[in-house]
Amino acid sequence: MARRTVLRATAILSLAVFLSSCAQEAPPETTVAPLEVVKPRPEIYAEYGLRADLSYLTDNQRRMIAILIEASDIMDGLFWRQAYGDDWQDWLASIDDDAARRFAALNYGPWDRLDDNKPFIEGIGPKPLGANFYPADMTKEEFDAAYLPGKNGLYSLVRRNDDGSLKLVPYSVAYADELKQAAELLREAAELAESQDFANYLKLRAAALISDDYQMSDLYWMDVKDNEIDVVIGPIETYEDRLFGYRAAFESYVLIKDLDWSARLARFALLLPELQEGLPVPEAYKAESPGSDSDLNAYDVVYYAGDCNAASKTIAINLPNDEEVQLQKGTRRLQLKNAMQAKFEEILQPIAGELLDESQRQHVTFDAFFANTMFHEVAHGLGIKNTINGKGTVRQALLDIASSMEEGKADILGLYMITRLHEAGELGDVDLRDYYVTFMTSVFRSIRFGGQQRARQGEHGALQLFRGPGRIRSRRRNRHLPGRLRQDAQCYDVSVPAAADTAGRRRLRRRPGVDEYPRRYRRAAASGS
Predict the structure, then answer these.
(1) Sign of CA dihedral 111, 112, 116, 121
(2) Coil, helix or strand at residue 51
(3) Which of 75, 100, 291, 345 is the one with CA 20 to 30 A from 435?
(4) pTM (predicted TM-score)
(5) How many domains is the chain built from?
(6) How many CB atoms lie within 10 A of CB 152?
(7) Domain presence at residue 261
(8) Each residue of 461-476: pLDDT tens digit?
């Protein structure tokens, strides 16, 4: 692989920026319907230059960025193999139509991720719910019946033995050559790091890639505070596994800290224990305290690879996902400011012009959008990680709808916290309406894709919650007037962990609002993309 050795003082990356808050979400399992082949539509993606100031970095730090990008490219190839198959390069090169090939590259396969994963190339079947993590002919019943210790693990593939029985293949074995190369690059980058803590983290992450044991590097990452450059790399999110939500997909972000904005955010991290204690829920749901090492920082993205680069782009990160790490250390919330700016300019503002009443448009501001996104991420760290009835973690109890319920909780709880902090004077001299109107505009952005994506299900629920007298109403050609949203609509999903049985999970997902908001509003919002 060719080494990138030169970086300009200002990095300008032309990226597809159909952006989504938080980590990307995949649709839940759906019933089989006649297969519809749609047209490739690369034109729905806006090109936007993501700029990052590299002027204050040293020569070694710039060289390190190039090495981290090289390691990220390996993650990109591994995600292709997980999402589509091992022959992805030959398949992509075989596509004659330029638009279809471009769209396939954006979607990491022949399925449109923003249209319920419908195929856009003739002769391609439906996308397997388990992507390439499982044998294509494996059923849920076969998997459930198989004796495979650790079969619900994050870091293994399910494959067949010669006799047809199922077996587990650890990532460190299935992708041994690529992960060994990526680990060597991380160690090389560590030699150039000016922060000793960051150098140690890179070495631990390198060891994790070839051992499938990521917890130690996650714990250490929580203590890395003095680095201007950061990288989030490895198998992290489980959205690509729509069959069970067990297996993690490879991805990478290469980031540069925005020192000024990070300083502005630091004080909010100190408020997390108090915010947890003040949640308007029964005491049983506040029994766990988030780790005290949580922090908030702003970054500029210089590179996306793998899962986080598939179709829509992530604009904020809340990691690690490991519940034990969260309870011991907390989480880090990384706000990707330049990507957020792209989303605001290219998506949010046009939608506001299309759907909001003129009297409300002045309240759609970047600062409010940034804050809403930030407190959404803060909300992910609040609440409890384990069920109150002893049936395991919340994620294990809710299985395939855990992500949508968590996103709904974060949406409402984030807005609730903004309201309370504004009342306490912690946000300064700002108009609270900016946050509410910007929040609703962002919800309209999300409903363009219906209710199939899991993150979008949570936002559909939020929209349904806010419809009604004194909250949000429609007038004149679908123009909207967001009112003062009900403050007693705080945390409708904080209590979700109690529903640890299958019937309870399904009742939660069938709540009104998941997909019933009038399609005419979705069409109008889509014109603002």
Answers:
(1) negative
(2) strand
(3) 291
(4) 0.79
(5) 1
(6) 14
(7) yes
(8) 566 666 655 555 555 4
